[in-house]
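tool_call: predict_structure(chain=1)
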Amino acid sequence: MGRMSEESLPDGVRPEPADALPEYAERVLEVTELIPPGRVMTYGDVAEWLEEGGPRQVGRVMSLYGVGVPWWRVVRADGVLLAGHELEALSRYREEGTPLKEAGRAAEDHLPRVDMRRARWDGGEHAQGHT
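tool_result:
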């Protein structure tokens, strides 16, 4: 399937520039930028905040467009570090003082997890000037 040419679009509709993000992606990235250093939201938390989509949709946005935002602050609900990006995320968490749970000896990779009870951000500070 090819891209639609400008001539094939309905009257008054112009194509988005190639570098334009879908509106939902923009909103996900905006929420990501609001998360304070040392705090996290789950993929589901972001979707709930937006009142649209779900964890998979947020994860897809982050995988495609999240490189320019603090992606390490959007995590799985169990606090497990993002596969393939564990060491970079861990470095960022330590730099920001994000609460972590050290891995037990039985853990296969011996990597800590985010301590979700202490690190999870509910967006409460959002109401104070970021509306």
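agent: The two ends are 40 Å apart (CA to CA). Proceeding to next step.
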